[in-house]
Amino acid sequence: xxxxxxxxxxxxxxxxxxxxxxxxxxxxxxxxxxxxxxxxxxxxxxxxxxxxxxxxxxxxxxxxxxxxxxxxxxxxxxxxxxxxxxxxxxxxxxxxxxxxxxxxxxxxxxxxxxxxxxxxxxxxxxxxxxxxxxxxxxxxxxxxxxxxxxxxxxxxxxxxxxxxxxxxxxxxxxxxxxxxxxxxxxxxxxxxxxxxxxxxxxxxxxxxxxxxxxxxxxxxxxxxxxxxxxxxxxxxxxxxxxxxxxxxxxxxxxxxxxxxxxxxxxxxxxxxxxxxxxxxxxxxxxxxxxxxxxxxxxxxxxxxxxxxxxxxxxxxxxxxxxxxxxxxxxxxxxxxxxxxxxxxxxxxxxxxxxxxxxxxxxxxxxxxxxxxxxxxxxxxxxxxxxxxxxxxxxxxxxxxxxxxxxxxxxxxxxxxxxxxxxxxxxxxxxxxxxxxxxxxxxxxxxxxxxxxxxxxxxxxxxxxxxxxxxxxxxxxxxxxxxxxxxxxxxxxxxxxxxxxxxxxxxxxxxxxxxxxxxxxxxxxxxxxxxxxxxxxxxxxxxxxxxxxxxxxxxxxxxxxxxxxxxxxxxxxxxxxxxxxxxxxxxxxxxxxxxxxx
Length: 597
Prior knowledge:
- The protein contains 18 helices and 13 strands.
- By secondary structure, it is of the alpha+beta class.
- The strands form 3 sheets. It has a 5-stranded mixed barrel, surrounded by 4 helices. It has a 4-stranded antiparallel β-sheet with strand order 2-3-1-13.
């Protein structure tokens, strides 16, 4: 049984180049990824790079009051929106009783972040009663400029009963005679306003265009039904920012309202019925790319059981109507983000929102829907630029402290371990390269930002990494003191050192993980960096330090125990080489001498 074991050990000793090649390939791949991403330096936090500070003032909504509970909930939702992984360095905190301060580091899309933190994200699914181009789009209407922002379809793999047709660019799916179309649709809108529900099919826009005419008054010339809302719809010009911002503002879910929506740069105005499904009944949402069609980026929604039933009911009713009253408007904070048409009931509890989304737009919408609506509305009080002067001074002081600490470690290694210090310093360099590359790539990948606590975590990691080398070197020296030569000493010391290194790094990583979970803000940056560098320590020791020692053990400078190698047997007080001796034979049998007895 001993022979195979020696054979495996010899094989492992003879191929340390594989491990070194593997870590070299990893460094080259990470370097290539860094240059391909267009980011060659780590993303810095607001304390090191400056950024934007946004002050938001709370406004009480209907049914909600400004109190500590609602403010804390708003802070939590905003923090998850802009800092979901806890390492992008965006800070969200309350100030006083009704203000929230949001600090966003430089390098972040501050305009998009402002939208993320300030958007209430109140979502409603409302049936479309009428729609038409507004502003510049109204002057040159065309079938291609459809108010329908996209389509709704079930989750792939759903049963046929829950399927919806693929999106179409323009609609006129139901036709009507050219004569009387405007009057009949105007009457349909009026009837819908009276009933407060989805109208029955009674007409469509002429020529196949989805834009419906302005609701008209009855033949008597006197307004009937909700005349004020009809007049508001007729006068609405969505091309004007002020008008579209107030179009669907403060509309109650049970009311009929007007709203604006954009599609391919053209603005459309909508007359919408009472909300059929509330956004709170969306269980989760995520951005997905349509690889099988031409819809591009979509937002996939999964409803709660109650929301799925309501959604199936409203799509079943809408499917029986004609355009544009077979559409439902997806209204986010008073603006129509999409108005897909329905051809059959959508069951299964899931649906897609599509509408020429860019990837970032789809992800932002899914982000807001997933984390829920804010309990309060907020008004932007101020937006200021934060400089990094103080953080820069602290960074220089921190880097100086790190450089002094590193220099002391190097001096200690050179004085005490001599030639072995080259192995330690080479391992530190490899660890530093990997840390830099990974931190740089994590910036665009997950929004990781390097702040002052994170720099402290990286400095602390120098000691953790050096400790692993020292453990291994001391195990090798112990084997040499026992009288073994260097090559077997390197291999026999590794299993014992490996267990100690793994246990030590596990404890460090566990402490970093617990600190990351139970803390918030900048302290998470320290914990994240500490955990990352601890994992890299294991990688470097296993794939670089140990194989490098195996190669150096074959060099005469180290194998012969040169006094500057750090492995001089005489300097270590080594015992003579171990040799087996034959046991001496016992005394010959015979009578016992009485004197000895």
